[in-house]
Amino acid sequence: MSWSSLIPATSFMPIQATEIAKEVDLLYAFLIIASLVSFVILIGGMTWFLIKFKRTSVDQKSAYITHNNFAEFLWSFIPLVIMMGIFYWGMVIFEKLRTPPEDVAAEIHVTAEQWAWTYRYANGKEFYSSANDPMIVPAGKATKLILTSKDVIHSFYVPAFRTKQDAVPGKLTQLWFEPKQPGEYIVFCTEYCGTKHSGMMIKIKAIPSEEYAAWYHAEKKGADSPADLGKVLFAQKACASCHSIDGSRVVGPTMKGLFGSERKFADGTKAKADENYLRESILVSSAKIVETYPAAMPLFQGQLSDEDVANLIEYIKSIK
Ligand code: CUA
Predict the structure, then answer these.
(1) 195-218 pLDDT tens trace
(2) How far is CA 226 from the centre of its chain?
């Protein structure tokens, strides 16, 4: 949107490092201007009426209007239209902020704990947050984060990207962004999580995508990739005795093409198979039973760590 360049780069806001940041700021600027205009109309009008209709003597009759349908309609209907417009505008931006594109260049599992972040890449590169290990992402390409927490609720907030997402224990949430330029962007935890809450600051470092590819494939810092570890676990837990990986029907649904597909359940509801759905189905499969299948899968809650679950999910995602 070219008209979003109306917002001066030198405003009091943090830099606009993504396209969405510009859109958020434009809406924000509109809200501020609309508030100012409303303020002038309301307070200015009131002041003007105070002066114009000032009672100058005791026996002067006061102006007394009981009712005016037209005026009341106008001051209800016009604000309603403006408010619905703002609602729609915000909804469109929110939808963009919440929906990662189909092809993301990097997917990173982010685990929050008191008081640090760990990030793990699809090939097993793993970092425990510190100033020396910024989260490396490609510039000009989309990155998706899959967040969870080991203890309390934390929140991953990147002011320059105008986006944030809670990291919730026992749940997977996601966040995506596409930094336009290489650079370093600060990340705050914005959910009060204890003594060193303010110390949960890390940096995202966006580097040109060719450089990113070289960095990504260079010497690994972690062990095997999450998908490889998930594959081992899939065999160890005998998942294959009920779930095929080639599309054939066994006791339970096949894993082939499962991720991202639409699931229909025995109770008539539907859901898209995202990370959080896979997590729930692995731990407590009875929560959502896929139609035409029996509720036969044992409970894995308490038997798999968060990391095990993340690894299984990455393996399932790789079975296309
Ligand atoms: Cu983690 Cu606040």
Answers:
(1) 989 888 899 999 999 999 888 888
(2) 22
CB-based contacts of 293, cutoff 8 Å, min separation 6? 251, 252, 253, 266
Residue 267 pLDDT > 80, yes or no?
yes
Residue nearest to atom 1 of ligand 1 (CA): 154
| Predicted pLDDT of residue 228 | 81
202 lines ligand 1 (CB under 6 A): no
Fold exhibited by the domain 226-318: Cytochrome Bc1 Complex; Chain D, domain 2 (1.10.760)
- Ligand 1, residue 200: give the atom nearest the CA: 1
- Mean pLDDT for 171-182 is 93
Q: Please say if the pLDDT value at position 91 is more than 90.
A: yes
How many helices (H) and strands (E) the chain has is answered by 7, 12
Tokens 């009981």 belong to 66
The alpha carbon of 166 and the centre of ligand 1 are apart by a number of angstroms equal to 10
How far, in Å, from the CA of 130 to the mean position of ligand 1? 15
Enter the tokens of residue 209: 């995508």
Q: What is the pTM of this model?
A: 0.71
CATH architecture for segment(s) 106-218:
Sandwich (2.60)
**Which pLDDT score is estimated for 180?**
92
Beta strand 106-113 with 143-149 is: parallel
Q: Which atom of ligand 1 is nearest to the CA of 154?
A: 1
Each domain of the chain, given as residue ranges in start order, spans: 19-52+69-98, 106-218, 226-318
Work out the average pLDDT over 78-99. 94
Inform me whether the pLDDT recorded for 81 exceeds 90: yes
